[in-house]
Amino acid sequence: MFKMTQKGPGRFYREGISLLELAEQFPDEDSATQWFESVLWPNGRKCPRCHGDNTYETNNGNGMPYRCRKCKRYFSVKTGTVLQSTKLSLKKWVWAVFLELTSLKGVSSMKLHRDLKITQKNAWHMLHRIREGLFPRIMEAFEGPVEVDEAYIGGLEKNKHEDKKLNAGRGTVGKTAVMGVKDRDSNQIYAQVIEDNTKRTIQKIINETRSQDAPVFTDEHLSYEGLTNHTSVNHSQKQWAVSTMLGELAHTNGIESFWAVLKRAYHGTYHHLSKKHLNRYVTQFAGKHNLRDHDTIDQMRLAVAGMAGKQLRYKDLVS
Fold it and tell me: Facing residues of 118 across strands?
């Protein structure tokens, strides 16, 4: 396994990489390939199909430089990952991962298409595959206290064309609900799109995310009523924080800061997020938040490691 270095406390102490340093570290395709292999095969080269380690190099010229003696199949470092079937160089993939992880508000497919000199279609597919690597890994239940809040993503009704307006009111009308849970102890976030904000939906996610009876801090939304070990702040009465019996300061400032970043990305980078793909963007920003205390190169390693065992075809994205 690669060694993780974590500079603490706080993300300001992590070690970054400049553009010049990245160019020096990955001057050609061979250096990028070796890096991908070190991340995806930390314990040595293995066949992605049968997981055997009895493999050897070949010179068949078909883009599959290795062959497994057990299953007789050819493979490369891309096989069995979201990179499978990509015709883009691994050097460009290194740069794409770097640009996405070091951009607070994300990278648009138009910018990536210009930066890497690839088509916008390839850039869009590339970014979605990078998001697959940022999807939440299996996480332990949050020990708490946890902050819980919802956000609503979408354009304002008044700004829509007449044929797009729902004419059903203002505020959250026409927007998609997103729910987030932030663990203060680990500074980790879990977030997802939700179909509704009913008590049943919201409390199910909270209880699946936190450890048993971990303290929960929320606003005054009625869907939170009945939770165990629950403290709420009444935002409608301009109450932003309240002390609990255990001396904790109950507020939702942490999870609201996460929503602020997501909404700045929506307005400043993407401008529109379809409901179909919104959950990919939400988990992308949760994943980036959860990696932010690591050094930049370790963030890149974790994102690439998360691409293993997954597949995301373009036709599945647009179907």
Answer: none
